[in-house]
Amino acid sequence: MITGMDILGAWVRGWAVSRAAPAPVAEVDGYRVDVGLPGHRVRYLLRSPSAVSARARTVAAPGTWLKACGSRSSVLASLTPAWRAGETEYLMASDGPMPPVAVPEPYSVTVTGDGPVWEVLVSSGPAPAARGQVAVAGGVAVFDKIETEPEHRRRGLGRVVMHRLAVAAGAGSGVLLASAAGRGLYTSLGWRVVSDVVPAHVPEGAA
Fold it and tell me: What angle do CA 87, 89, 90 make, to 5 degrees?
């Protein structure tokens, strides 16, 4: 079982594997990932709102992102005007097996990958209906990019994706970062919220 804020480290290590990003670097207040992409040069993962103020003042270069664990009000109060905050997300964890789910008609499922990353695609004929991927890092499965096309929602396809990813990964513990919309699905599957996470970034091209 993974406990406490070790879950943040488990998530960022798996996220880096899933996105083919450089390995995260441990820092005193969390982690840094040197992503190196336009608009997403570097990412900081902070363990608490108390770390936000110093980071917001000292790393506010264009293309910098941070995600801070803690209450939204505390994080927002520590940001400078250069930063743009996004919607609150939820760091979630699971230590049990994912419930098996039957694939509804007329959908089919394809699983690709041989580790440490696997992808699941649910299709209706030639059209993609739902998808997701999972990366295993340090024995923890990190679920990523879980999405269902709008016209295929409310048919249990998210559950199908999660179950097939869990089987492919074969790990006992799982971590993910959920949107507000996804939180309900994962809670219904037995996942627990570890912390609210508030994202913010300095837009590329900012002064």
Answer: 160
Nearest of 79, 96, 76, 99 to residue 87 by alpha carbon? 76
Contact between 166 and 45 under an 8 Å Cβ cutoff? The reply is no
13 and 54 within one domain: yes
Residue 101 to residue 185: CA distance in whole angstroms: 13
- 175 vs 52, 64, 109, 110, 194, CA distance in Å? 23, 24, 23, 22, 10
Domain of residue 114, residue span: 97-171
Say if residue 5's pLDDT is above 50. Answer: no
The predicted-structure confidence for 74-104, as pLDDT tens digits, reads as follows: 999 999 999 999 999 999 999 888 888 999 9
Give the phi and the psi of residue 126 in degrees, each rounded to 5: -85, -10
Torsion of CA 55, 58, 63, 64, to 10 degrees: -20
pLDDT tens column, 24-72: 999 999 999 999 999 999 999 999 999 999 999 999 999 999 999 999 9
Number of structural domains found in the chain = 2
| 78 and 40 in a common domain | yes
